[in-house]
Amino acid sequence: MEEVVETGISSVNQLGGLFVNGRPLPLDTRQQIVQLAISGMRPCDISRSLKVSNGCVSKILGRYYRTGVLEPKGIGGSKPRLATPPVVARIAQLKGECPALFAWEIQRQLCVEGLCTQDKTPSVSSINRVLRALQEDQRPPWIHLRLPAGLGPIPRTPHCDSEAPRGPHPGTGHRNRTIFSPGQAEALEKEFQRGQYPDSVARGKLAAATSLPEDTVRCSSFSWKI
């Protein structure tokens, strides 16, 4: 049984080595581990020599052999939040003005407007989570959020103007665009990212999973390609 003795913010492992809970090993210790391994020392011997747990030594060496990276990964909470309040506000506004927009279309629009860069854009899953959270709010989602300066409504397009009317218009020949829920949109996106024209079997499974008619799934795959 491993005995750990608390000493302030540090602890002592069963080998007598000091460590800080939740913090990575110092870089100089990591360098010693790699240098000793390169010299031919076994991980268990490195563990005893440096008083670092064998599991920690193996993990550091395994990552170094796979990636060549010696530095620790980002500490929890250090990763910048991409869905900042201005970004969330813009997502809410875009979805409010054009409910038929998919998450990937919103993601692309954020980059086009310069609100996000290609390497610092919320993922499609993150945008869908934002949309689900906004949908739970009974108020119009963009009312209580502050928009970034200089950003106004997106240009109106047939894609946005084709919201479903309250009643049918027989004889007009106009096909209303289906407005998908966030869950349906996420399922469709995952399927169409694998292949933009699913076969009949895949369409049937997707229709059952999303509770959508198969004709709607077929039409969605066509519009996705466009």
TrEMBL record:
InterPro entries in the record: HD, Homeodomain-like_sf, PAIRED_DNA-bd_dom, Paired_dom, PAX_fam, WH-like_DNA-bd_sf
Record region (Disordered): 160-179
PROSITE patterns: HOMEOBOX_2, PAIRED_1, PAIRED_2
One cellular-component annotation, GO: nucleus
GO biological process: animal organ development
Every Homeobox domain range: 171-218
Main location: nucleus
DNA-binding region, residue range(s): 173-219
Stored Gene3D superfamilies: Homeodomain-like, Winged helix-like DNA-binding domain superfamily/Winged helix DNA-binding domain
MF terms (GO), sorted A to Z: DNA-binding transcription factor activity, RNA polymerase II-specific; RNA polymerase II cis-regulatory region sequence-specific DNA binding
SMART domains: HOX, PAX
Keyword Iron belongs to the record: no
Keywords on record: Developmental protein, DNA-binding, Homeobox, Nucleus, Paired box, Transcription, Transcription regulation
Paired domain sequence ranges: 8-134
CDD domains per record: homeodomain (cd00086)
Similarity section: Belongs to the paired homeobox family.
Protein name, entry field: Paired box protein Pax-4
Organism whose genome encodes this protein: Bos mutus (wild yak)
